[in-house]
Amino acid sequence: MKKLIINADDFGYSRAVNYGILDCFKKGVLTSATLMVNMPGAEHAAEIALEQKELGVGIHLVLTCGKPLISTHKTIVDSDGSFRNQAFYQGSYTIDPEEVAAEWEVQIKRFLSFGLNPTHLDSHHHINTFKDIDQVFLWLAKKYNLPVRHNMDLPNGQISTEKFELSLEKALANEDSLLSIFNDANTLEVMSHPGYLDKAIYTGSSYSYPRLDEVELLTSARTVEWIKQSKEVELATFSDLS
What we know:
The structure is a single chain. This protein is α/β, with parallel strands linked by helices. It has one domain: TIM Barrel, CATH 3.20.20. The chain has helices at about 15-25, 40-50, 95-115, 135-145, 170, 175-180, 200-205, 210-220, 220-230, and strands at about 1-10, 30-35, 55-60, 120-125, 165, 185-190, 235. Strands 1, 2, 3, 4, 5, 6 and 7 form a seven-stranded parallel β-sheet that branches. Helix 1 (about 15-25) runs parallel beside helix 8 (about 210-220). The chain starts with a strand and ends in a 7-residue tail after the last strand.
């Protein structure tokens, strides 16, 4: 059987996002989520994760949203002390990789302080794939012996899925569409961003209403039926990767 991981990014962004992710896990086909420990809903997300033992929960390392956990950064924050936004990294930029390493290690340690065991690492806005950041990401994955999202070139021995898919709609259109994404691979992660809406999302995220569409898709009776009855694909988490 091919292993399908459906991961929700942005766990911990807000309580509304957390409740949307919870419903997609309990009522739908979501299997995994990655937690933003620096955001207002982080502790609430951790409470949910501790209660839902079958939900795979990893760490959504943050460098482009909210405020850092360390207050002394110089190169990865703006004049207000918030993380620089995603646009900063679209052109030529200079940052101190040691600041990234220090911040992300503190984020990992905060996750561990919740009493959770991370299943894997990924990052907000795929910032782990950017220059001066990618090697920090891989160093932390090796240090903490964690699987990672396969959205970058990976060194030999690094545990990940064989494939990674950005489009939830394409993956869940029907079984033929999903199997065409797998092709010859046996493991696949599909990224998602389900959630309900609150002020935090409306004011802080450019991706708002579509989160509701993703909740609907992940919990629809049609989706649940064909995935759970499939004879070729089974739902999994990063903990199921060998």
